[in-house]
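Project standup — Tuesday

K.O.: blocked on the structure for the chain from last sprint. Re-posting the sequence here as requested.
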Amino acid sequence: MIDLSLYKDKTVAILGLGKTGLSTATAMVESGANVLAWDDSESTRMDAAEQNIPVSDLSQINWGSVDRFVLSPGIPTYAPAPHPVVEIARESGIQPVADVELLFEAQPQAKYIGITGTNGKSTTTALIGHLLQKAGHNVQIGGNLGTAVLDLDPFLKGGIYVLELSSYQLELCHQTRFNMAILLNITEDHIERHGTLENYVAAKMRIFNNQTDQDVAIVGLDDPLCQAIYQGLIGQNLQTTFAISAGQAAPGGVSIVDSEVIDDMEQISHIVGNISDFMTLRGQHNWQNLAAAYTVARLMGERPEKILKHAETFPGLAHRQEVVRDTGTLLFINDSKATNPDSAAKAIASYKNIFWIAGGQAKKKDIKEIEPYFSHIQEAFYIGQDQALLCDLTKDQFPSHLCDTLDKAISAAVQAAKNSPDPAVILLSPAGASWDQFANFEARGDKFKDIVQALQLD
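H.V.: unblocked you, prediction finished:
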């Protein structure tokens, strides 16, 4: 846990006591701060109190005595409407911050690599950590990926924090400076939280705030919004900026085209190697993730061939095109993390002869990102709240079935796939949120894995 003794005897208000907030409150209490913590959920407050976290109604405290206000990332700051406590704090002249700010304050000697984007953040974060650890660097990985940043260990003589950052976290970062800041992609997402696409883009771009000419920005070129951001950073010339791409040339940067890694970082374009056999990095979207991680490793002084050697050993992440079972004729893939159509499209593009399981809570009323890959899908099996919407969108393209629940969808998909003359892929890539039927996408993916592993297959 990070030592926050710089807040000893200071008053710290904390709103939200989920994983991040509870981690912050625990670190503050252990560091001797005067903690005032609150969550709108009574049961969550009771759980925190049982862990000796002081609970106080933040709408009733004296904000003039508060030195720091830490906000959990999921709580609205502006759109669709700010939380009432956030408004009270701002009226008292106190801006909310993320736990990432506290880490940066407490560990100024460390290096910081930040990764954001609509899709691919977790894989890229884990892959960068993997490559740097293989190369012998002292690295810790956390943030939105899983481990709250204040639960990481402190570095005594430097070290590197590799942090996945959501738009929610970034809008609460004010002073944090990333030595390397990576923006993979931006597609329409979380609009219900940010209010507009412009607000969402602005939150993502905060990852480049506070950078200097000693720092690096790495930006994907594979969507129009990021192309414009890349050109803007080049024009400002505040930091060194590298382009990455999966599918097109990236002058002065790194691209992966037709499975070949092309390094142009020194303005001399050359092919480093072919990654078509890298099982945990299949698909064009993973090429972008690898291009970003490769760029970081090269900037840290690693040799190109060694980087690819280490990348081939990357174990991958659960719920992100995770191979669950392979019978030779049936390949089961758990891509439960694909909670929007853009993310699902990336998985569907990676396979052929797909028997697709999808559904849940739709984030939009179309799946236009998936349409170019309809030919990859043989049949679809839909579940959850918005299954009828998906069925209406695809029933004229391929057989589409309303299955209600995941177990029924898997059973129907297996029966259909068994009749395929070619090896088939049973792909859970929902293109929707999980909250209608599951606690989170992890629970959905775990259920898929449990059912698939228990199947009695001939």
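K.O.: great, moving the ticket to review. The chain has a mean pLDDT of 95. The chain has 15 helices and 18 strands.
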